[in-house]
Design a protein that fits this description.
Length: 439
């Protein structure tokens, strides 16, 4: 296969001559190596570096992020307060994605990536400085976390799209999940051990400080990633324009992403908090993360190796049915035992949901030259859809917990939110059928 054919086959949008008018010889060689690796279904150096950065980001967040909600809860035991904190994160994140799109596309996306890591470090520094007063500055902390996540994940996803292709995307997502699971096995358990063996809040201050240091290492790693220029201006209204097009698959995909975010927005913070409330022991929370992450490690490894484009449709259906059913034990009792059942079941089957979902959306972004040239706008649209779902889910959680504290209403709320992945599969099933035919 000729070089230009390889570009066209695996990386749509790179064929146009003007797209490489500013490429240096070193960048051209790196691109050639990446294309050759993609043709063989292997990783070049750039995807490996991106996985390393993702692993560091996951480790820092696993070390401290698991316990931020617990830290706030110990100061003020209020579900509504924690929900508002999470809501501030998602709203700021969505706004950051939309505004930062112009910077990422027309300037240097690596600067945005580094800023995201740096602001993550600043977030934990802010928690250290505020101490118990943090509950009075929920909006500030939520805004800082949302700003950091917005900058990091927008840039990360654009780079991810650029350094992977259809042959390596499922494997990359499998490895990313594998690294996240490894971080989840070690970091939260270590954090719990440090917290319970240090007096007062010294343990919290220690783990927050270590996370800060890991984020700084991530900034250094990011300097080895190459920035690839995009030759078009950022279109602020492109998501709306895209959704208005008759017959566009993005309408169904956007609805699926909203449903995915609906679950993520709540379960991302409430499960760890429930484990702590049920046990009043940070070490138990660390053990919970260790057990579930160990299961997730194996399941991501298997899913990354076995899931092929032709299997995405039914693999995802099996995954969403399973992660919905594991919420059911909460109707019996919300306890450490039922939370462990939920955690293991989710860890075992969630890769069947997330890997096909992520890979298929990015395959759609790279389906033709026009979409690939608009990759930043489409990634912004993807993230806006996810955050819309997260905001809606969190708003529902805040409203219900503010209105009533009755256990039955709380459990029913978790089950309703936990069913949302079923809608993701329903909207994506036609997209999977197209992917299978192409494969």
């Amino acid at each position: 296969m000729q070089r230009d054919q390889v570009k066209t086959r695996f990386f749509p949008g790179l064929r146009k001559p003007e797209s490489h008018s500013q490429v240096t010889p070193g960048e051209e060689d790196a691109l050639q190596a990446m294309l050759e690796a993609e043709r063989r279904g292997r990783f070049s150096a750039q995807p490996i570096l991106l996985l390393l950065l993702n692993g560091l980001f996951a480790a820092a967040n696993a070390l401290s992020g698991t316990f931020v909600g617990v830290y706030l809860w110990k100061v003020k035991s209020d579900f509504t307060m924690i929900g508002i904190f999470t809501l501030c994160i998602h709203l700021t994140m969505a706004l950051t994605f939309w505004l930062a799109g112009k910077w990422v596309k027309e300037a240097n996306k690596m600067h945005a990536l580094r800023l995201g890591v740096a602001v993550s470090a600043a977030f934990y520094l802010l928690v250290l400085v505020l101490g118990p007063k943090a509950v009075s500055y929920i909006w500030l902390l939520g805004g800082a976390q949302g700003l950091a996540s917005g900058f990091f994940w927008l840039s990360f996803n654009v780079v991810y799209f650029e350094v992977t292709g259809p042959k390596t995307r499922d494997r990359f997502n499998g490895w990313a999940g594998l690294l996240g699971s490894t971080a989840g096995i070690i970091a939260p358990w270590l954090s719990g051990f440090i917290i319970v063996h240090m007096p007062g809040t010294t343990g919290y201050r220690t783990i927050f400080s270590v996370s800060l240091g890991i984020f700084l290492i991530g900034v250094i790693v990011s300097f080895f990633l190459r920035n690839r220029q995009v030759q078009r201006n950022y279109a602020w209204s492109y998501p709306v324009t895209c959704l208005k097009q008759p017959g566009t698959p993005w309408r169904r995909v956007t609805a699926a992403l909203v449903a995915q975010g609906f679950r993520e927005g709540v379960f991302g913070f409430v499960i760890g908090l429930l484990v702590y409330i049920s046990t009043a022991d940070e070490m138990k929370l660390g053990n919970f993360a260790l057990i579930t992450s160990a299961v997730s490690f194996v399941s991501y490894w298997l899913a990354g190796r076995l899931l092929k484009p032709s299997l995405r449709k039914w693999g995802m259906l099996a995954g969403v049915l399973a992660v919905t059913l594991v919420v059911a034990p909460f109707f019996w009792q919300v306890s450490y035992v039922t939370l462990i059942i939920f955690g293991i079941g989710t860890a075992l089957f969630m890769p069947l949901f997330t890997i096909p979902m992520t890979s298929s959306v990015f395959d759609l972004i790279g389906s033709d030259d026009e979409s690939a040239e608009r990759r930043v706008e489409l990634i912004v649209m993807r993230e806006l859809a996810l955050n819309t779902g997260r905001v809606l889910g969190t708003l529902l959680f805040v409203a219900v917990t503010f209105w009533t504290k009755a256990p039955l209403f709380f459990t029913t709320l978790l089950f309703v939110i936990g069913c949302s992945p079923l809608f993701s599969w329903w909207y994506m099933r036609h997209q999977f059928a197209g992917t299978a035919r192409a494969a």
